[in-house]
Amino acid sequence: MVAQYDKTPVLQTKNLVKRYGSVTAIDHADFELYPGEILAVIGDNGAGKSSLIKALSGALIPDEGEIFLDGKPVSFSSPMEARALGIETVYQNLAVSPALNIADNLFLGRELLKPGILGSVFRMLDKKEMEKRARNKMAELGLMTIQNISQAVESLSGGQRQGVAVARSALFGSKVVIMDEPTAALGVKESRRVLNLIKEVRDRGLPIILISHNMPHVFEVADRIHIHRLGKRAATVTPQTHTMSDAVAIMTGAMEVSGSEEEAA
Ligand SMILES: Nc1ncnc2c1ncn2[C@@H]1O[C@H](COP(=O)(O)OP(=O)(O)OP(=O)(O)O)[C@@H](O)[C@H]1O
C-alpha cells in the first residue's frame, strides 16, 4: 500500500499537553500519521517521545488537546481502550512471554474460546483455531522459518521473538501499530529481518509509528520522520529531502526549521 497524504490522518493529535508537576513532557504537540505510511518518531533523550506515544496508546491521559482516530475525536483511559479501537503497541521490553509458546503469545489476553457451550459456559480455549490463525499470520508475514508454532518462545532468537511480537500486533492492530525501539536489542541480521517485517506490515495496509534512536534504521524504512524536540514537533522530514545529519541537527536545535518548511513537510 502506498502512503496516502491526501487522506484524513489515521491518527492525529492537536495541541496535546501533558505536565508532570513543573515539567511539561508534551507541550502543545501536533502529530499526524497517514494511511499506508511508516512514520518514524525521533528526538533527543527527554524530548517527550515516550510521553507522546503513551498518550496515543492510552497509557497516559493528556491534560489538554485532542486525539483523532480516522478524523473522529477519541479519548482512551487505558491501553485496553486504545487496543479495542485498533491501536496496537509493541513495547521493547514487554514484547513476549518467554515460557509460553508462539500461538499462546499471539493470543495472550485475547484467547479464543471454543464455539458453543464449551466456550460460553465452560470457558474452554480453542487451541486448534488459535494455532491455525497463528500459523497463517506467521506464514503471511514470512515468519515460517519458525517451524513449530507450539515451540516455547524462550527457544527463539531475539529477532524471532520480536517477530512474534510484530505478528501479534499485525494480528490485532486493525488501525495502527506502534513500535517502540523494535531493533534496540537485536544484532545486524536480526534487525534486518525485523525491519523487513515492519515494511511487510505496512505493505499489507497497516500504518506504523516507529520510535527509534537508530538513524540508519529510521532512514531505511521510514516514509516520513517526525522530529520531536522540547515536547513538540520541531519538523517533519523525509529521507529524500533531509540527511541523517540534518535530522540530528534539527533534533538538537542546531538547525532551525522555519514554520513554512514544517508546514510543507
Ligand atoms: N512519570 C513521570 N513523572 C515525571 N516526569 C516525567 C514522567 N515521565 C516523563 N517525565 C519527564 O518528561 C520529559 C519527557 O520524557 P519522555 O520519557 O517522554 O522523553 P523521551 O523523548 O521518550 O526520552 P528517552 O528517549 O530518554 O526515553 C522528561 O523531562 C521526563 O523527565
From TrEMBL:
Q: Which UniProt keywords apply?
A: ATP-binding, Nucleotide-binding
The family database entries (SMART domains) matched by this protein are listed as: AAA
GO molecular function (one): ATP binding
Task: Give start-end ranges for the coiled-coil region(s).
Answer: none
Which species is this UniProt entry from? Marinomonas rhizomae
This protein's name: Mannose ABC transporter ATP-binding protein /fructose ABC transporter ATP-binding protein /ribose ABC transporter ATP-binding protein
> What Gene3D superfamilies would the database entry show?
P-loop containing nucleotide triphosphate hydrolases
Q: Name one Pfam family in it.
A: ABC_tran
Q: Where is the ABC transporter domain?
A: 11-255
Task: Give the superkingdom in one word.
Answer: Bacteria
Q: Does the keyword Magnesium apply?
A: no
